[in-house]
Write a structure and sequence with these properties.
The structure is a single chain. The chain starts with a strand and ends with a helix. It has helices at about 10-30, 60-65, 75-85, 90-95, 105-110, 130-140, 150-155, 170-185, 190-200, 205-220, 230-240, 260-270, 280-290, 305-315, 320-339; strands at about 5-10, 30-35, 70, 165, 225-230, 245-250, 275, 295. The protein has two domains: about 5-145, Rossmann fold (3-Layer(aba) Sandwich), CATH 3.40.50; about 155-170 and about 205-295, 3-Layer(aba) Sandwich (Rossmann fold), CATH 3.40.50.11350. With about 350 residues, the chain is of the alpha/beta class. The model is unreliable at about 45-50 and about 85-120 (pLDDT under 50). The strands form two sheets. It has a five-stranded parallel β-sheet with strand order 6-5-4-7-8, with helices on both faces.
Length: about 350
């Protein structure tokens, strides 16, 4: 059986969404999906834990035995793929444009292989609706056999009909500061790229507050919120700003590995009655696997709102007073470059 290779080195949301979309494509074309998850390889993110072992989430033998069209790369194969991708990244991007999808084995990889970085665009054919792909992803998600430890953690979840709020911060703040530094150096291209990462995946805290404030008159006393965030402070800050609302902060189980904590969080979010958030893949993945309504708060926000977010939320978190002053002084330069 020919193989479709899914190679990922980003965080969990992107890995899982790509796995499901690529698996759907492979199944519809009678291919075997080869899943290759390597260590985190996003240079802007200061994230040193490398426990992205598939075995921390999935019972690999049980999944492969149940579903013959999926296989998981072992350490030797992962090393081979990592070497190839570092050497021939340009060739891989070219093969994406030419839509050459399959390879028979590792020897054939360099001439006919294809690595999948994105999720939706290269893996939808004319006539395939987004709704149909999402439905297939939900079905395939249920075919993944989980480890006993993850199963036990999921069995204890009780979201109680709450509305999920996802506030992504953490790594994205690094993009905001990097954008200013690039603007200081006169590198407009990199300043724009880093700013767009912030713009596309996060939402200013004031936007959450405004959205929840608009709903207070009809949902106060009726709706409870479960807040998910990669920043331990933002949840408590939102609770303090809106004490009259029933907001609970989702807590990770400290006994779980980081990838297990993230997986349990996305499943918990998928079990909520609806989801409110931004453009983060993590949020969209939860909405897909849970088939839940998703409110995207960032659709009407301007880039000026994100410049204000850098000033209000990101720069004040910098410990060094001189650096804070330097960032604030250079913010108008960034604003001119990106707006």
């Amino acid at each position: 059986m020919d193989e479709l290779v899914c190679y990922r080195g980003d965080r969990l949301g992107g890995r899982l969404l790509n796995l499901l979309v690529a698996w759907n494509f492979a199944r519809r074309h009678k291919l075997r999906l080869k899943v290759v998850w390597t260590d985190l390889s996003m240079p802007v993110i200061d994230y040193t834990d490398s426990r992205y072992d598939l075995g921390n989430l999935f019972d690999l033998e049980a999944t492969a035995a149940q579903s013959q069209d999926i296989a998981f790369a072992g350490p030797e194969e992962i090393a081979h793929y990592r070497t190839y991708i570092a050497r021939d990244a340009r060739k891989i991007r070219t093969s994406l444009r030419k839509t050459r999808y399959v390879c028979r084995d590792l020897k054939d990889l360099e001439s006919r292989g294809h690595y999948l970085f994105g999720g939706w665009r290269p893996l939808r054919r004319p006539g395939w609706t987004a709704w149909g792909v999402k439905r297939a992803c939900r079905r395939l998600f249920s075919e993944l056999r989980l480890t006993a430890r993850v199963e036990a953690a999921l069995a204890t979840l009780d979201v109680g009909g709450k509305t999920a709020i996802h506030i992504r911060r953490g790594d994205l703040f690094a993009y905001g500061l990097k954008a200013i530094e690039c603007a200081q150096a006169g590198d407009k291209s990199q300043a724009h790229n880093n700013f767009i990462n912030l713009y596309e995946k996060s939402i200013p805290l004031q936007t959450y507050i405004a959205a929840m404030d608009r709903r207070r008159w009809w949902e106060f006393g009726k709706r409870r919120y479960l807040l998910f965030s990669d920043s331990p402070d933002v949840g408590e800050k939102l609770k303090a700003l809106m004490p009259e609302l029933d907001i609970e902060v989702f807590r990770d189980d400290p006994s779980l590995a980081p990838i297990q904590q993230a997986f349990v969080a996305v499943v918990a979010m998928s079990r909520c009655r609806r989801i409110i958030g931004g453009g983060s893949v993590f949020t969209r993945l939860a909405a897909i696997i849970g088939n839940k309504p998703f409110t995207h708060l960032g659709r009407r926000l301007t880039k000026q709102a994100y410049v204000a977010m850098i000033a209000d939320e990101i720069i004040p978190a910098v410990a060094d007073e001189d650096k804070r002053a330097d960032y604030l002084k250079s913010l108008p330069i960034l604003a001119e470059m990106v707006t």
